[in-house]
Amino acid sequence: SLIEFSGQDRLQWLQGQVTQNLTGLESGETRALCICEPTGQILAIGRVTETDGSTWMEVPSDCVEALLNRVEEMVVMEDVVANDVTANWHFTSRHGAHAMLKNVRPAIVLRHDRFGMEGFDIWSRTPIEHDDLLPNRADEFAGVRLEHGIPKWPDDFPPKLLPPELGAGFLETHVSFSKGCYVGQEVLMRIHSRGHTNRTWVVLESELDLAVGDPVAAEGGDAVGFVTSVGRSKNGLFLAGAFIRNAALEGRLVIAGTSVRVRLR
User: Fold this and answer.
1) How many CA atoms lie within 13 A of 105 on its CB side?
2) N or C: which end of the chain has fewer CB within 10 A?
3) Residues 114-170: pLDDT tens digits?
4) CB 256: neighbour CB atoms within 10 A?
């Protein structure tokens, strides 16, 4: 979904709400971010860009209500208005090195790497002819993104999740530890500076098929995690995103009695 933020105070207000530093956001630039609870837990994720005198935030559709509620609760005297304008635009997503952009104006373009490759989400006033698009293989996307260690909303985002639990790659793209105050910053800075989480989202690899919800156990021991999403690598191996207790990551892991390997962490 696409949310339009307008009003003179929109960027200043957003700077105090999101995990990403929006200072110096240039027209057409895209930055990924989280919106967190005061406890640091993720409420929503999104990508933001600036163009035509408005700030545009793209979020998963099931994050819209939480985002608009945050605006309703936290905008007091600021000149900030947020509207869900999804119905007024046509959405197209392109992926891969040949995802050329042409004949899509006027449009709002947000760069992304949800599948470990260059991609563009395009919101245009008129539909884009599908003949211009590179064919997409949706069944391959899960494997490609897992090969690159990219979590997917909402599959890999259970309730009460803290950004650091998604690993260093996610933090690098979604969280700034040098910006000013924002909702949830105190908790995230405490973890970053002198703390740790009890679990981390990792990518597992196996010769046998895996399924969402599979419990992951330490070899000869108790459950230490669970599978959140699955896919296959280019070489045919089965991949799974999974949350694993940090203390168990150095040992051998099994699913249904079969050894699995930590591919990315």
Assistant:
1) 5
2) C
3) 888 888 899 998 887 754 455 456 557 899 999 999 999 999 999 999 999 999 999
4) 14
